[in-house]
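Curious: explain these tokens?
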Amino acid sequence: MPELNDKQIADFFHRSYTAVDGLWFMKAEEKYGFDAALDLDDEVWKVFPKVQARALKDMTRMTFGLEALRECFTAKLAVEGFQFDVENLNDGFRVRISHCPWHDAMVKSGREALSGKVGARICGTEYSVWAVEFGSGIRFERKSEICTGAERCVLEFAQ
């Protein structure tokens, strides 16, 4: 059995994770149609961010509030291959994403025309769940999206 280093192992799991997400969506789409597959995907993304957030909270020992959200959410983005910067706001923070691996995957698979529909639905669900996981008073607002033609995705989290 070949020995894999930590980077190779992480890369293997990252590729597997992104591939299985796309494969299950395409199989659901084949069987039920695009809109039904998107509805199912939305249901998954109402739960999966809770799993991710809770795992990162446990790993970082940060559990509540905007600072914990900022640390855990940006860790998630970095691990998934996003390119972004973060700006402090008076009552929260803004994340400006310049490169989205999920949009890139849609483009690479020839489904760029659907990326905006998927992103508008799934990112809104996912990032709202992230906000709630760190405090019921934390709000999420999406200001722009790469998948709908903007130069950057702009996400704001505020108290």
